[in-house]
Amino acid sequence: MKFKVFSELEYYVQFPTTFIFNIHALRATHQTILEETLIVDPFFRAEEFNSAQGENRFTRLEVRKKTNLKVTYNAVVDSYHEVVDLSQLEAVPVGKLDNSVLPYLFPSRYCQSDKLAKLAYDKFSKIKTTYGKVFAITEWIYKNTDYLSGSTNSQTSAYDTVIERAGVCRDFAHLGIALCRALSIPARYFTGYAFQLSPQDFHACFEAYIGGKWIVFDATKLAPLNGLVKIASGRDAADAAVASLFGSVVSNSVIVTCECLEPDFVPIKYKPNEYLGVSF
Amino acid sequence: MKFKVFSELEYYVQFPTTFIFNIHALRATHQTILEETLIVDPFFRAEEFNSAQGENRFTRLEVRKKTNLKVTYNAVVDSYHEVVDLSQLEAVPVGKLDNSVLPYLFPSRYCQSDKLAKLAYDKFSKIKTTYGKVFAITEWIYKNTDYLSGSTNSQTSAYDTVIERAGVCRDFAHLGIALCRALSIPARYFTGYAFQLSPQDFHACFEAYIGGKWIVFDATKLAPLNGLVKIASGRDAADAAVASLFGSVVSNSVIVTCECLEPDFVPIKYKPNEYLGVSF
Amino acid sequence: MKFKVFSELEYYVQFPTTFIFNIHALRATHQTILEETLIVDPFFRAEEFNSAQGENRFTRLEVRKKTNLKVTYNAVVDSYHEVVDLSQLEAVPVGKLDNSVLPYLFPSRYCQSDKLAKLAYDKFSKIKTTYGKVFAITEWIYKNTDYLSGSTNSQTSAYDTVIERAGVCRDFAHLGIALCRALSIPARYFTGYAFQLSPQDFHACFEAYIGGKWIVFDATKLAPLNGLVKIASGRDAADAAVASLFGSVVSNSVIVTCECLEPDFVPIKYKPNEYLGVSF
Amino acid sequence: MKFKVFSELEYYVQFPTTFIFNIHALRATHQTILEETLIVDPFFRAEEFNSAQGENRFTRLEVRKKTNLKVTYNAVVDSYHEVVDLSQLEAVPVGKLDNSVLPYLFPSRYCQSDKLAKLAYDKFSKIKTTYGKVFAITEWIYKNTDYLSGSTNSQTSAYDTVIERAGVCRDFAHLGIALCRALSIPARYFTGYAFQLSPQDFHACFEAYIGGKWIVFDATKLAPLNGLVKIASGRDAADAAVASLFGSVVSNSVIVTCECLEPDFVPIKYKPNEYLGVSF
Fold it and tell me: Among residues B108, B184, B123, which one has the least CA distance to residue A244?
């Protein structure tokens, strides 16, 4: 399925600043970049590099003078979303997890799974399958958390959200990840462009590791799961921030769009007892 | 320099449990394992594997029945500690950091560098060199934090320690890491066996990335820096716990020793204005 | 109903210390002290005084030398427990609350009702009567929190307990208070001796203000509500600690007992749809 | 000294709401209200009452319909500010504190003195006099905390401010109180109108109990201490919020002014080694 994605970020740079952007669509087995441009205005040389694990395509930009900066990214991306019959997939016991998956069991900055152990156990441990547990986690978050722009900030973590019960997509994702890890289910943060997300913005959700595959879940239910174009994954938002800034800037505007270039898009959202999962 | 290291961990396993141990001396460029045995009593097959980045040697053990378990590790290790003249090393700007180093700039579970930004800036930003900053950070932690066994637990993070001002080696390390990252200096958690540590135990300290090298720092000042035998590094204790347990066990005892097998050990601790750093 | 209560606290006083004890049975309209002795061994003059609001009888003791100290309190108390038909009581709107009740609406050290507003609203606001809300709060705490000695400490607050889901009587009380206040129901901390509490110890629960009366609730369900002998009430444990210490001591032992001196004690615990409340 | 104070608060009331305002100048031994009007537009009957301890004059207002509401307070107040020679005042040991002062030793919602014990002890316990300690606390807060509008919110507490090192007058006051209490110095929150505060707004600072008097301290240094017109005191902002709202409203604007009606105002701010204190 082909998507056209676009983002435009505007800053006022006050002092020399190094930017690390995380806005490129990822190059991956199931995602091909057909066209892509990055425009930096005024021109500064941008250096692209991958994270060590290949889960992010970072763009590094050094701006050494006071200026208004506009970074514009355009791409056409072919994303293949595998729809998996989860009733056929067994959980992977911790004893069999691949070493590259193991870090996604550990607590991280915004996902203090160690603190949520008893909550997760009380609410979800009796559910039989791994898919059933993660599905129940997303339903629980959806029911108990209000999506409320501006209710949280960059320091808000799963520990806060479980009490304050309001947040944005990033907070919903962090809570989902923390609850999965608390049940020994590896889970990671997922950022991307999202077709039919309203209003249009960068989106965040999470992937849980079930039966050897990373299955995507979205506790906000704000966008179809097969309309996502992956930017990055990581332990949490600390690994996959849209922009990490080392210096001093004012962010002026962010515009994001995602269109589907094919006429036959059929949105997928999970339903109880369907056991379908979307994997990238 | 040759060291003989030993650890013995005893558990009562109540329910089937997967252990992931992190007690082997690391195989690395500057550290050679000359001899090594791991005894699991009663016998269960232990599987050794490395973390994806090669910074940990994990041992995975599945114990499927109720039992007392004793895990004993013995090794003779040759560790080469490079003593670096830091006055010759320049800071690596964020714009030039290798992608494998970048994650050590981001906040993590126990090192909320984002929350300590202003504190770090106020106290240390005026110090000129990167080494000077990290040295001052360790001195500040040493002066303002009491080493107090039992004062903290596995959920204690740098955010707590900066206020409560008491902790153990793990807490001192987390605070050091958080303050470095808050100043855009990459820093990571380091665990090891430590010669002349009293009382003998597993030890934790941290490494800061200066001039392209990972230099070890220890804000507890409890052990010579050239008496360390590296077990693992990671973002924080979440990545390098001595034992991660998935199941239900009671920990009964931990015994650790580290001896130097050479007669001419000259302990190294940093002093102001000496600009010497120990790197592994 | 007559009760015989006893407490014995032993300390090793290392440096000159002022103690403020909160172990005397309260003198109140519905509670009469029939006999009472306080023995301080070795002898130091104890000064008794009431809190400004009359909700505590404090005993102040100044120990000016290194010593072992034993404080023993014995009393026979006649406590009258009114059993209230709550179906007849209406809620008191904030607009009609007496000024002495108002502070129990505000958040306090261990009862951050401001942070629990949304949780309380989501879970309990649809329940019709004030009694029904508070009853549901105690049931929810009882079901979702494990009573676990040693799981918390003197810094643990309702914010922690709602996530960690384990605690002791003090933590159950704080969470109950915080959730009540979040719904604009005044609530206060209650400490006392408790008949049939097992094992015997000082007990803590809470009172909610319903229909102009303070009705006692106990989310631990560990003791009959009509077996309580009131020591003190306050905003939370900060106001009604068993002992506040200004100096340096080691606590060696605490022994507490509470017996009923009458043969016909019929324990009261609340049941759904009964609308009975115990008031002191 | 005579002051003219004014405040005007505008709200949009969405649902029936009970307001408890705390905007009247306090009637106290050293403060006389010469003239005073409160206008509620549209008219709703306002009920005035004092807190149980007489430290607040609350105004309660019930608004039972959807409306725009404007509350305007005007007063001319004669405030007598005693200037105390603190070199003559001795500390009051805990053993001699009056029962009405004792609660100001205990931790409260925004002043977690129990968590700051070691920090307070390390930094200030060696200073000899009580005044010296409190003076040093205000200097330390002033030096280490940025006054930054919008950097904190109604949930921010002393625990956060000591780390985040930014806040508004309320946060400066909370931190001062917490550090005093951690040293066994009673301290309470103080709100008022403040002459020469720029920009004009409600102000908050704190009082410490020294030599039997409540001495006012202001770690923001934003206003002269003898230009304060007292509104209320309390354990912290939970007791003395400008407006506590039970219902649903939108706050539209707040305007505050404070003028001195006498020509010979000489501003007082504390200086090192002067030992002068302002008491109300």
Answer: B184
